[in-house]
Amino acid sequence: MDRKRFIKNSGIGLGIALMPGVLLSQPNIFSTPHVYVNDPKVVKDNDGDVLNVIGDIQTHKLLGEDTNNQIVEWVDNVAPGVGIPPHIHTKEDEIFRVVKGEVEITVNSKTTILKAGDIAFAPKGIAHAWKVVGTEKAKMITSAFPAGIEFMFQELAKLPEGPPNFKKVAEICGRQGITFV
């Protein structure tokens, strides 16, 4: 038997031999229902739990319990001059979407002014910081994924008013895997 004929016949034979296994291993898309772990949720602009996290007024819109711990999302309503110093997350990535005002954000040593409609991504393991600049309050939607950071914010919101005790803040954040640079 010549080489071309052997390869052709072997390929056809192998294809016929493997076809039933390939077909049986495929999920049946018509009989497998899609399972939703969580119920859908609609959150209006005025809905959510408001927390004062050391001057960062956050309205928590979606929590881990709403999203199978995939994402947490909150709205920051922050006065000029308020911000978060450089820090690094080890557990979650963050996305910042400015809706109103101007926010100076630094990610991986690159500083940019975000205005309404602008977005920044800060992956875990990369130092980042932000501060409201200009003369008006800023409104920013922040997402963190996976969820879990909301518990840290709830704990930080229980600290006494006034200048924060940085040692206590760093301890609370450290339990979430966040360190300040």
UniProtKB/TrEMBL annotation:
<dbReference type="InterPro" id="IPR013096">
    <property type="entry name" value="Cupin_2"/>
</dbReference>
<protein>
    <submittedName>
        <fullName>Cupin domain-containing protein</fullName>
    </submittedName>
</protein>
<dbReference type="InterPro" id="IPR014710">
    <property type="entry name" value="RmlC-like_jellyroll"/>
</dbReference>
<dbReference type="InterPro" id="IPR011051">
    <property type="entry name" value="RmlC_Cupin_sf"/>
</dbReference>
<dbReference type="Pfam" id="PF07883">
    <property type="entry name" value="Cupin_2"/>
</dbReference>
<feature type="domain" description="Cupin type-2">
    <location>
        <begin position="77"/>
        <end position="142"/>
    </location>
</feature>
<dbReference type="InterPro" id="IPR053146">
    <property type="entry name" value="QDO-like"/>
</dbReference>
